[in-house]
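Researcher: For the record, we're logging two predictions in this thread. I'll number them. Prediction 1 follows.
Model: Prediction 1, sequence and structure:
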Amino acid sequence: MPDRLLFIDTETGGLDPHKHSLLSLAMVVWEVGEILDSMEILINDGILAVTDEALSINKIDLETHKQLAVSTSRAYDEMVVFIRKYFPGQGKITLAGHNVQFDAGFLRSFFAANHSDFSEFFSHRMIDTSSILHYLYLSGRMKQRAVSSDDAFRLFNIQVEGRHTALGDAMATARLFTSLLHLIEQ
């Protein structure tokens, strides 16, 4: 399964993974242009450290979130079961996403909170569609600059079901990556 990737996206309570809560995590299993499966986990860390700005973007209602979300430890267990199902014995998983380092930072903190090592599961190498878009624009392969996910989804006519939800954005980013692969095939 060397070409299998795990696209991730998160919705968070702010920008700092050491200060703000991870509210939701989505995982999309991608292989050779196909989405094999996906999962979204809503997380309640018992603190719910959030900013008004973050909630205005992700539109998460904290009271509803508290009712639907699972504990950090249960979320971790669910994530591990999911990734072991699709990445059995593969070695370190390559994460992918749009500005994936942001999401990986929250994932690192999430793993640490669960007394686990992020690097036990995931490679230090990651695929970032924002960087790919910027490279393609600078190389002249794309005439229009579209580094933000909103611009990229518009440019490639990708419909996002559930924009600014972790699952909606992760699914759209996986489809964007497939579109970028088709672009360089031309």
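Researcher: Logged. Prediction 2.
Model: Prediction 2, sequence and structure:
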Amino acid sequence: MAQRYVRVQNLEGKIYYGLLQLSLNVQVLDAPPWLQGQPTDLILEPDNYQILTPCSPSKIVAVGKNYADHAEEMGTTVPKEPLIFLKPPTSIIASETEIKYPPQSQRVDYEGELALVIGDRTYDCTLEEAQTKIWGYTIANDVTARDLQQKDGQWTRAKGFDTFCPLGPWIVRELNPGARLQTFLNDEATPVQSACIDQMVFPPDVLVSYISQVMTLLPGDIVLTGTPLGVGPLQIGDRVRIEIEGIGRLENTVAAR
């Protein structure tokens, strides 16, 4: 199993980065791993910590319509270059916490996605450089108030609500380019989304290079790479689970705000 890098909070409220062991103990690092954090002698046992989102980014840059079949289901064509937008850092929540259904919306959708974690300051980089700037990979849910997205004609409100970016539960350094992404609702055995991440229109290195020509990406920033076919509505009480082969599962329940 690949090493799993986590961000946790102990019972006293102190936050650490660490390595999650098979025993579920966490070996604490002395700094974020992308800043060359090294293992320390401090070990946190499972009863003594809570898993947080695996990083605390300055920004989340997301990409729309990056799978052709999803663009088609949205009734649009594939863009000629990446279509980027921002989600606020305040939208991030950890796995096993609640997505809050806002009263302003009547239609809130799940969108399972692969998330890239940036490991180094990234500005105006080439495709070759971009690959070296991707420190690791995690899972995201780009929760979207679909009715507000259509009403507003732009996406800030629809994708920016608090709790609308579940992220985690941990980061891995390497990922099979053909890994499968699947989204499940409640206890259904059949996924509502299922695609291989190599079906992206614009792959990760292209996205990072493109974004870096617009804005500087900082260590710990997140790039969401788009969602495949099969987006659909969430109801209060639902449990949504996103799995990516080689990473794990991100699971959240939906509650009234």
